[in-house]
Amino acid sequence: VGRLLGPAIGGVLIAVVGVGTVFWVNAASFLAVIVGLLLIGQPVNPAVDRPEPSRHPVRDGLHYLRTRRDLQAVVLLVAMVSVFGQNFRVVFPVLARDTFSGDAATYGYLTSALGLGALAGGFAVATRSVVSPKLVAFAAIGFAVMNVVVAVVPSLTAAIGAIALLGVTNVGFNTLSRSYLQLYTAPELRG
Questions:
Q1: What would the pLDDT profile of 110-146 be if each residue is shown by its tens digit?
Q2: What is the pTM for the complete model shown?
Q3: Which of 56, 114, 135, 160 could form a disulfide bond with 167, CB atoms 3.0-4.6 angstroms apart?
Q4: For the chain, how many helices (H) and strands (E)?
């Protein structure tokens, strides 16, 4: 909800009170989160037999990864998408201002569309009971395609729709890839 409403409210506030004030409001909003985290008590966990932690966890993890081609493929996809695809948000202000001759409110529309798509993507992924490397690859391809579509859409309305789908595919890929890595890695190697 914050990812959906926050940018929209931020865009309107920037237009009304200016960027500086919005930065201060945003900073103050983090205080509530910090106080909430401080108020959370530590759960009492029953004693669980756990193996001795490794003295070389990175080396052990890389060795394990060499034995699992499925995990290698997913890690490679995550690395590629992280390096080449996840920086799409940095062009939203330029897209709003230069491509669509908009202002802070336009930027708010674009980021709200992303948030709405992310919410829909979260619900869509939550319906999956099985995750496979093929599904992760399909989600990565969908995310790449939506990045290209956002880059070439001719109107603000089309951009809002495309960015919503970008949010769906972004959350879909991120959730599916991380889920696969957690579900199919040996329990003693999970971080």
A1: 988 998 899 899 999 999 888 999 999 999 999 999 9
A2: 0.78
A3: 114
A4: 8, 0
